[in-house]
Write a structure and sequence with these properties.
Residues 1-30, 45-117 are annotated as: Disordered. The chain is mostly helical. It contains 5 helices and no strands.
Length: 117
Amino acid sequence: MDHEVGEVERSPKQITDAQRVLHPGSPMSPKTVVAVERARLLEASMSRRDDRPAAVLEPQVITNAGVDDGVPPDLLPDNRQHLTDRPRQEASQAVGTKRDRETHAPRTKDQLLALRY
C-alpha cells in the first residue's frame, strides 16, 4: 500500500483492557486475567487488614530525657528560653542570606554591561 509523503499508517484497532471492562463479552488477554486476579487478592488482603479490631495503645509520653542532664537547676529556665528563641533567630537571619552567598551574581550596572561583551 503506497502512502503520501507525511501520511501516517494507521494501526488496526485494538481493544484496551479498560475497554474490555466496559465490554465484558470480549475475551481478556492472559495479562489482564493475571492482573484482575492480583487485584482481587490485594483487595481481599486489604479488607482483612481493615477488619481487625484496633489495638488499644498506651499513650506515648515523650520527654526530653537527657537534654537537661548535668545542667544546674537554676539555669534550666534560661536554657529552655534559649532553645525556644533559637529557631526565631535563625528564621530572622535566614532572610536575604541566599543573596549574600551569591558572590558571583553581578550587582552593579557596569558588571551587568560587562557580561554583554
